[in-house]
Amino acid sequence: MALEKTLRWFGQNDPVSLSEIRQTGVEGIVTALHHIPKGQVWPLCDIRNRKSEIEQAGMSWHVVESLPISDAIKTGSAEQAQDIENYKESMRNLARCGVDTICYNFMPVLDWARTNLKYTTETGGESMLFDYPTFAAFDVFILERPNAEKDYPGEIVKLARSAYGAMTEQEAELLAFNIIVVTQGFIHGAIDSNVDDYKSKFLEYINSYKHIDQNHLRENLGYFLDEVIPVAEELNMNMAIHGDDPSFPLLGLPRIVSNIEDLKWIFNRQTSVRNGLTFCSGSFSTNRNNDLIKMVNQFADRIHFAHIRNTQFLENKSFYESGHLKGSIDVYALVKALLKEQNRRIHCGRKDNRIPIRPDHGIKILNDFKQEANPGYPLIGRLRGLAEIEGLEEGIRRDPGSMDKST
Ligand code: DNO
Question: DSSP class of residue 98?
Fold first, then answer.
Protein backbone atom coordinates (compact mmCIF):
# COMPACT_ATOMS: atom_id res chain seq x y z
CA MET A 1 0.00 0.00 0.00
CA ALA A 2 1.13 3.55 -0.64
CA LEU A 3 -0.29 6.96 0.06
CA GLU A 4 -2.53 8.07 -2.82
CA LYS A 5 -0.64 10.56 -4.99
CA THR A 6 -2.58 13.52 -6.33
CA LEU A 7 -1.96 16.89 -7.93
CA ARG A 8 -4.16 19.94 -7.90
CA TRP A 9 -5.79 21.10 -11.12
CA PHE A 10 -7.80 24.29 -11.43
CA GLY A 11 -10.11 23.21 -14.25
CA GLN A 12 -10.14 24.38 -17.87
CA ASN A 13 -8.62 27.76 -16.93
CA ASP A 14 -5.54 26.07 -15.53
CA PRO A 15 -2.59 26.67 -17.87
CA VAL A 16 -1.41 23.16 -16.92
CA SER A 17 -3.40 20.45 -18.70
CA LEU A 18 -4.73 17.13 -17.42
CA SER A 19 -2.59 15.19 -19.88
CA GLU A 20 0.53 16.93 -18.58
CA ILE A 21 -0.47 16.09 -15.02
CA ARG A 22 -1.10 12.49 -16.03
CA GLN A 23 2.52 12.21 -17.20
CA THR A 24 3.72 12.84 -13.65
CA GLY A 25 2.19 9.47 -12.73
CA VAL A 26 -0.34 10.67 -10.13
CA GLU A 27 -3.50 8.64 -9.69
CA GLY A 28 -5.78 11.40 -8.56
CA ILE A 29 -6.77 14.97 -9.32
CA VAL A 30 -7.73 17.36 -6.58
CA THR A 31 -9.97 20.11 -7.87
CA ALA A 32 -12.96 22.40 -7.37
CA LEU A 33 -15.71 23.94 -9.46
CA HIS A 34 -14.10 27.35 -9.52
CA HIS A 35 -16.78 28.82 -11.79
CA ILE A 36 -19.46 28.48 -9.11
CA PRO A 37 -19.57 31.43 -6.71
CA LYS A 38 -19.01 30.77 -3.00
CA GLY A 39 -22.20 29.84 -1.20
CA GLN A 40 -24.02 28.39 -4.24
CA VAL A 41 -24.91 24.74 -4.80
CA TRP A 42 -22.55 22.70 -6.97
CA PRO A 43 -24.95 21.12 -9.47
CA LEU A 44 -24.80 17.40 -10.10
CA CYS A 45 -24.26 17.80 -13.84
CA ASP A 46 -21.23 20.08 -13.37
CA ILE A 47 -19.71 17.60 -10.93
CA ARG A 48 -20.36 14.71 -13.33
CA ASN A 49 -18.79 16.59 -16.23
CA ARG A 50 -15.70 17.40 -14.21
CA LYS A 51 -15.39 13.83 -13.06
CA SER A 52 -15.66 12.35 -16.52
CA GLU A 53 -13.13 14.85 -17.88
CA ILE A 54 -10.66 13.67 -15.23
CA GLU A 55 -11.43 10.00 -15.81
CA GLN A 56 -11.03 10.37 -19.55
CA ALA A 57 -7.53 11.65 -18.84
CA GLY A 58 -6.82 8.44 -16.91
CA MET A 59 -7.12 9.74 -13.34
CA SER A 60 -9.72 9.76 -10.60
CA TRP A 61 -11.41 12.48 -8.55
CA HIS A 62 -12.06 11.82 -4.87
CA VAL A 63 -10.89 15.02 -3.19
CA VAL A 64 -12.40 18.48 -3.51
CA GLU A 65 -10.12 21.42 -2.80
CA SER A 66 -11.96 23.50 -1.80
CA LEU A 67 -15.69 23.54 -1.34
CA PRO A 68 -15.41 27.12 -0.10
CA ILE A 69 -17.15 28.48 2.96
CA SER A 70 -19.08 31.67 2.29
CA ASP A 71 -18.47 34.79 4.34
CA ALA A 72 -22.05 34.56 5.61
CA ILE A 73 -21.17 31.20 7.21
CA LYS A 74 -17.97 32.60 8.70
CA THR A 75 -19.56 35.77 10.02
CA GLY A 76 -22.96 34.33 10.89
CA SER A 77 -24.82 36.92 8.81
CA ALA A 78 -28.30 36.68 7.31
CA GLU A 79 -27.58 34.09 4.60
CA GLN A 80 -25.75 31.73 6.99
CA ALA A 81 -28.56 29.14 7.23
CA GLN A 82 -29.24 29.13 3.47
CA ASP A 83 -25.55 28.85 2.62
CA ILE A 84 -25.18 25.89 4.98
CA GLU A 85 -28.16 24.19 3.32
CA ASN A 86 -26.52 24.81 -0.04
CA TYR A 87 -23.28 23.37 1.29
CA LYS A 88 -25.06 20.19 2.36
CA GLU A 89 -26.67 19.95 -1.06
CA SER A 90 -23.25 20.20 -2.70
CA MET A 91 -21.98 17.48 -0.35
CA ARG A 92 -24.84 15.21 -1.41
CA ASN A 93 -24.17 15.85 -5.09
CA LEU A 94 -20.47 15.17 -4.64
CA ALA A 95 -21.15 11.96 -2.72
CA ARG A 96 -23.41 10.75 -5.53
CA CYS A 97 -20.44 11.05 -7.86
CA GLY A 98 -18.03 9.23 -5.55
CA VAL A 99 -16.15 12.31 -4.35
CA ASP A 100 -15.66 11.52 -0.69
CA THR A 101 -13.24 14.06 0.78
CA ILE A 102 -13.80 17.79 1.16
CA CYS A 103 -10.95 20.17 1.92
CA TYR A 104 -12.02 23.61 3.14
CA ASN A 105 -10.67 26.40 5.29
CA PHE A 106 -12.10 28.84 7.78
CA MET A 107 -9.75 31.81 7.32
CA PRO A 108 -11.35 35.23 7.16
CA VAL A 109 -10.59 37.38 4.08
CA LEU A 110 -7.23 35.93 2.91
CA ASP A 111 -6.73 32.28 1.99
CA TRP A 112 -2.92 32.55 2.06
CA ALA A 113 -0.40 35.38 2.10
CA ARG A 114 3.05 35.97 0.62
CA THR A 115 4.92 39.22 0.06
CA ASN A 116 7.18 38.13 -2.80
CA LEU A 117 6.03 35.69 -5.47
CA LYS A 118 9.38 35.75 -7.26
CA TYR A 119 11.87 35.03 -4.53
CA THR A 120 15.07 33.80 -6.13
CA THR A 121 16.61 30.70 -4.57
CA GLU A 122 20.34 30.03 -4.32
CA THR A 123 20.19 27.85 -7.43
CA GLY A 124 18.21 30.28 -9.58
CA GLY A 125 14.71 28.91 -9.05
CA GLU A 126 11.79 31.09 -8.02
CA SER A 127 9.99 30.53 -4.74
CA MET A 128 7.67 32.55 -2.52
CA LEU A 129 8.52 34.59 0.55
CA PHE A 130 6.53 35.93 3.46
CA ASP A 131 8.44 38.81 4.96
CA TYR A 132 6.67 39.99 8.10
CA PRO A 133 7.91 43.62 8.06
CA THR A 134 6.95 43.89 4.38
CA PHE A 135 3.49 42.54 5.16
CA ALA A 136 3.24 45.13 7.96
CA ALA A 137 4.30 47.80 5.44
CA PHE A 138 1.44 46.72 3.18
CA ASP A 139 -1.04 46.79 6.05
CA VAL A 140 0.04 49.98 7.83
CA PHE A 141 1.36 52.23 5.05
CA ILE A 142 -0.09 51.03 1.74
CA LEU A 143 -3.53 49.82 2.75
CA GLU A 144 -3.63 52.26 5.69
CA ARG A 145 -5.94 49.98 7.64
CA PRO A 146 -7.19 52.04 10.60
CA ASN A 147 -5.15 51.30 13.75
CA ALA A 148 -3.15 48.59 11.97
CA GLU A 149 0.02 49.75 13.76
CA LYS A 150 -1.35 48.43 17.04
CA ASP A 151 -1.28 44.87 15.70
CA TYR A 152 2.53 44.81 15.31
CA PRO A 153 5.39 45.06 17.78
CA GLY A 154 7.16 48.45 17.68
CA GLU A 155 10.32 47.08 16.07
CA ILE A 156 8.30 45.52 13.22
CA VAL A 157 6.58 48.84 12.53
CA LYS A 158 10.02 50.45 12.40
CA LEU A 159 11.27 47.87 9.92
CA ALA A 160 8.00 48.22 7.98
CA ARG A 161 8.48 51.99 7.75
CA SER A 162 11.93 51.61 6.29
CA ALA A 163 10.80 48.82 3.93
CA TYR A 164 8.00 51.10 2.71
CA GLY A 165 10.43 54.02 2.40
CA ALA A 166 12.64 51.94 0.12
CA MET A 167 9.77 50.94 -2.23
CA THR A 168 8.92 52.72 -5.45
CA GLU A 169 5.25 53.53 -5.97
CA GLN A 170 5.02 50.66 -8.47
CA GLU A 171 6.58 48.20 -6.06
CA ALA A 172 4.12 49.21 -3.35
CA GLU A 173 1.23 48.77 -5.78
CA LEU A 174 2.49 45.37 -6.93
CA LEU A 175 2.79 44.20 -3.33
CA ALA A 176 -0.84 45.15 -2.66
CA PHE A 177 -2.02 43.64 -5.95
CA ASN A 178 -0.22 40.35 -5.24
CA ILE A 179 -1.63 40.01 -1.73
CA ILE A 180 -5.18 41.08 -2.57
CA VAL A 181 -5.69 39.75 -6.09
CA VAL A 182 -2.97 37.54 -7.58
CA THR A 183 -2.72 34.96 -4.78
CA GLN A 184 -6.49 34.88 -4.25
CA GLY A 185 -8.07 35.30 -7.68
CA PHE A 186 -7.64 31.72 -8.85
CA ILE A 187 -9.04 30.12 -5.69
CA HIS A 188 -12.47 31.63 -5.13
CA GLY A 189 -10.96 34.99 -4.16
CA ALA A 190 -13.38 37.76 -3.31
CA ILE A 191 -11.71 40.50 -5.35
CA ASP A 192 -10.67 39.88 -8.91
CA SER A 193 -8.43 41.77 -11.29
CA ASN A 194 -11.39 43.58 -12.90
CA VAL A 195 -11.86 45.66 -9.78
CA ASP A 196 -9.97 48.97 -10.01
CA ASP A 197 -10.25 50.06 -6.41
CA TYR A 198 -9.15 46.73 -5.01
CA LYS A 199 -7.51 48.31 -1.96
CA SER A 200 -10.66 50.02 -0.76
CA LYS A 201 -12.76 46.93 -1.55
CA PHE A 202 -10.28 44.91 0.49
CA LEU A 203 -10.57 47.34 3.41
CA GLU A 204 -14.36 47.06 3.26
CA TYR A 205 -14.01 43.30 3.22
CA ILE A 206 -11.79 43.33 6.33
CA ASN A 207 -14.26 45.70 7.94
CA SER A 208 -17.10 43.22 7.41
CA TYR A 209 -15.32 41.06 10.02
CA LYS A 210 -14.96 43.86 12.55
CA HIS A 211 -17.38 42.28 15.04
CA ILE A 212 -15.89 38.83 14.70
CA ASP A 213 -13.37 37.95 17.37
CA GLN A 214 -11.76 34.56 17.88
CA ASN A 215 -14.62 33.17 20.01
CA HIS A 216 -17.22 34.36 17.58
CA LEU A 217 -15.43 32.84 14.59
CA ARG A 218 -15.05 29.58 16.53
CA GLU A 219 -18.73 29.55 17.34
CA ASN A 220 -19.56 30.01 13.67
CA LEU A 221 -17.26 27.14 12.75
CA GLY A 222 -18.82 25.08 15.54
CA TYR A 223 -22.30 25.76 14.24
CA PHE A 224 -21.21 24.84 10.71
CA LEU A 225 -19.71 21.56 11.98
CA ASP A 226 -22.81 20.73 14.00
CA GLU A 227 -24.79 21.04 10.78
CA VAL A 228 -22.52 19.34 8.26
CA ILE A 229 -20.78 16.54 10.20
CA PRO A 230 -23.99 14.51 10.61
CA VAL A 231 -24.49 14.83 6.85
CA ALA A 232 -20.91 13.70 6.25
CA GLU A 233 -21.60 10.69 8.51
CA GLU A 234 -24.69 9.82 6.55
CA LEU A 235 -22.85 10.11 3.23
CA ASN A 236 -19.60 8.44 4.38
CA MET A 237 -17.68 11.57 3.50
CA ASN A 238 -14.66 13.09 5.17
CA MET A 239 -14.53 16.79 5.97
CA ALA A 240 -10.93 18.02 6.12
CA ILE A 241 -10.26 21.50 7.45
CA HIS A 242 -7.09 23.16 6.18
CA GLY A 243 -4.72 24.99 8.53
CA ASP A 244 -4.28 28.76 8.52
CA ASP A 245 -1.59 29.99 6.16
CA PRO A 246 0.39 31.45 7.82
CA SER A 247 -0.62 29.98 11.17
CA PHE A 248 -0.71 33.28 13.04
CA PRO A 249 -3.09 36.26 12.89
CA LEU A 250 -2.89 38.79 10.07
CA LEU A 251 -4.67 42.10 9.42
CA GLY A 252 -6.13 42.12 12.94
CA LEU A 253 -8.35 39.16 12.01
CA PRO A 254 -8.85 36.08 14.19
CA ARG A 255 -7.30 32.69 13.42
CA ILE A 256 -8.78 29.43 14.69
CA VAL A 257 -6.93 26.62 12.86
CA SER A 258 -3.31 27.36 13.71
CA ASN A 259 -2.14 24.99 16.44
CA ILE A 260 -2.84 21.92 18.61
CA GLU A 261 -5.25 23.78 20.88
CA ASP A 262 -7.31 24.95 17.91
CA LEU A 263 -7.47 21.42 16.52
CA LYS A 264 -8.51 20.01 19.88
CA TRP A 265 -11.31 22.54 20.05
CA ILE A 266 -12.52 21.62 16.56
CA PHE A 267 -12.41 17.87 17.14
CA ASN A 268 -14.06 18.13 20.57
CA ARG A 269 -16.89 20.11 19.09
CA GLN A 270 -17.83 17.20 16.82
CA THR A 271 -16.09 14.04 17.87
CA SER A 272 -16.93 12.00 14.77
CA VAL A 273 -13.81 11.10 12.84
CA ARG A 274 -15.58 12.51 9.77
CA ASN A 275 -14.67 15.85 11.29
CA GLY A 276 -11.07 15.78 10.14
CA LEU A 277 -8.06 17.58 8.86
CA THR A 278 -6.12 18.49 5.73
CA PHE A 279 -2.69 18.30 7.27
CA CYS A 280 -0.85 21.08 5.43
CA SER A 281 2.74 20.85 6.64
CA GLY A 282 3.73 24.12 4.99
CA SER A 283 0.97 26.10 6.69
CA PHE A 284 1.40 24.66 10.18
CA SER A 285 5.19 24.96 9.92
CA THR A 286 4.96 28.76 9.82
CA ASN A 287 4.08 28.83 13.51
CA ARG A 288 7.34 28.13 15.32
CA ASN A 289 5.56 26.81 18.39
CA ASN A 290 4.01 23.98 16.40
CA ASP A 291 5.61 20.56 16.74
CA LEU A 292 4.41 19.08 13.47
CA ILE A 293 5.26 15.48 14.23
CA LYS A 294 3.44 15.69 17.54
CA MET A 295 0.44 17.14 15.69
CA VAL A 296 0.44 14.49 13.01
CA ASN A 297 0.67 11.69 15.59
CA GLN A 298 -1.94 13.19 17.86
CA PHE A 299 -4.53 13.68 15.12
CA ALA A 300 -3.48 10.86 12.76
CA ASP A 301 -6.87 9.19 12.63
CA ARG A 302 -8.46 12.44 11.44
CA ILE A 303 -6.01 13.18 8.65
CA HIS A 304 -8.06 12.71 5.50
CA PHE A 305 -5.73 14.53 3.14
CA ALA A 306 -2.20 15.92 3.37
CA HIS A 307 -0.34 18.75 1.66
CA ILE A 308 3.37 18.15 1.86
CA ARG A 309 5.91 20.97 1.61
CA ASN A 310 8.48 22.69 3.76
CA THR A 311 9.35 26.23 4.79
CA GLN A 312 12.54 27.82 6.03
CA PHE A 313 12.28 30.22 8.95
CA LEU A 314 13.93 33.60 8.64
CA GLU A 315 14.07 36.41 11.19
CA ASN A 316 10.92 37.67 12.93
CA LYS A 317 7.97 35.67 11.64
CA SER A 318 9.29 35.58 8.11
CA PHE A 319 9.75 32.43 6.06
CA TYR A 320 10.13 31.23 2.50
CA GLU A 321 8.97 28.08 0.78
CA SER A 322 12.09 25.97 0.71
CA GLY A 323 10.92 22.98 -1.33
CA HIS A 324 9.30 19.74 -0.25
CA LEU A 325 11.94 17.99 1.79
CA LYS A 326 14.49 20.65 2.74
CA GLY A 327 13.61 23.23 5.35
CA SER A 328 12.71 23.71 8.99
CA ILE A 329 10.51 20.64 9.42
CA ASP A 330 11.27 16.93 9.32
CA VAL A 331 9.37 15.67 6.29
CA TYR A 332 10.92 12.21 6.64
CA ALA A 333 9.26 11.83 10.05
CA LEU A 334 6.03 13.27 8.66
CA VAL A 335 5.78 10.79 5.76
CA LYS A 336 6.67 7.97 8.16
CA ALA A 337 3.85 8.99 10.49
CA LEU A 338 1.38 9.06 7.59
CA LEU A 339 2.46 5.61 6.41
CA LYS A 340 2.16 4.27 9.94
CA GLU A 341 -1.38 5.63 10.11
CA GLN A 342 -2.19 4.07 6.76
CA ASN A 343 -0.98 0.66 8.00
CA ARG A 344 -3.03 1.08 11.15
CA ARG A 345 -6.16 1.83 9.12
CA ILE A 346 -5.62 -1.18 6.90
CA HIS A 347 -5.15 -3.45 9.91
CA CYS A 348 -8.24 -2.21 11.69
CA GLY A 349 -10.33 -2.51 8.51
CA ARG A 350 -10.96 1.19 8.03
CA LYS A 351 -12.12 1.80 4.47
CA ASP A 352 -10.72 5.30 4.11
CA ASN A 353 -7.13 4.11 4.05
CA ARG A 354 -5.94 5.72 0.79
CA ILE A 355 -4.77 8.88 2.61
CA PRO A 356 -4.45 11.14 -0.43
CA ILE A 357 -1.47 13.46 -0.43
CA ARG A 358 -0.21 16.07 -2.82
CA PRO A 359 3.08 17.90 -3.11
CA ASP A 360 1.90 21.37 -2.21
CA HIS A 361 3.21 24.31 -4.22
CA GLY A 362 6.52 24.05 -6.03
CA ILE A 363 9.61 26.07 -6.76
CA LYS A 364 9.64 27.38 -10.31
CA ILE A 365 12.52 25.73 -12.19
CA LEU A 366 13.60 24.87 -15.75
CA ASN A 367 10.69 24.87 -18.21
CA ASP A 368 8.42 26.38 -15.57
CA PHE A 369 9.86 29.70 -16.68
CA LYS A 370 8.35 29.09 -20.13
CA GLN A 371 4.99 27.73 -19.10
CA GLU A 372 2.39 29.83 -17.37
CA ALA A 373 0.97 28.52 -14.07
CA ASN A 374 -1.00 29.82 -11.12
CA PRO A 375 1.21 31.25 -8.36
CA GLY A 376 2.68 28.36 -6.37
CA TYR A 377 1.66 25.74 -8.92
CA PRO A 378 4.42 25.37 -11.55
CA LEU A 379 4.37 21.87 -12.99
CA ILE A 380 8.07 20.93 -12.93
CA GLY A 381 8.55 22.30 -9.42
CA ARG A 382 5.64 20.22 -8.20
CA LEU A 383 6.86 17.19 -10.13
CA ARG A 384 10.19 17.51 -8.32
CA GLY A 385 8.33 17.54 -4.98
CA LEU A 386 6.26 14.53 -6.01
CA ALA A 387 9.37 12.58 -7.01
CA GLU A 388 11.11 13.44 -3.75
CA ILE A 389 8.13 12.38 -1.66
CA GLU A 390 7.67 9.16 -3.63
CA GLY A 391 11.34 8.27 -3.20
CA LEU A 392 11.20 8.99 0.49
CA GLU A 393 8.07 6.90 0.87
CA GLU A 394 9.54 3.98 -1.05
CA GLY A 395 12.63 4.03 1.18
CA ILE A 396 10.51 3.96 4.31
CA ARG A 397 8.24 1.20 3.02
CA ARG A 398 11.21 -1.02 2.15
CA ASP A 399 12.46 -0.71 5.69
CA PRO A 400 9.32 -1.33 7.73
CA GLY A 401 11.31 -1.45 10.99
CA SER A 402 12.04 2.27 10.51
CA MET A 403 8.39 3.06 11.13
CA ASP A 404 8.69 2.08 14.76
CA LYS A 405 11.67 4.31 15.38
CA SER A 406 10.80 7.79 16.52
CA THR A 407 12.92 9.69 13.91
C1 DNO B 1 -2.87 27.56 -1.52
C2 DNO B 1 -3.69 26.48 -0.96
C3 DNO B 1 -4.95 27.00 -0.31
C4 DNO B 1 -5.85 25.87 0.10
C5 DNO B 1 -7.08 26.30 0.83
C6 DNO B 1 -7.87 25.12 1.32
O7 DNO B 1 -2.08 27.30 -2.38
O8 DNO B 1 -2.98 25.64 -0.13
O9 DNO B 1 -5.62 27.80 -1.22
O10 DNO B 1 -6.29 25.20 -1.04
O11 DNO B 1 -6.79 27.11 1.88
O12 DNO B 1 -9.18 25.49 1.57
Answer: T
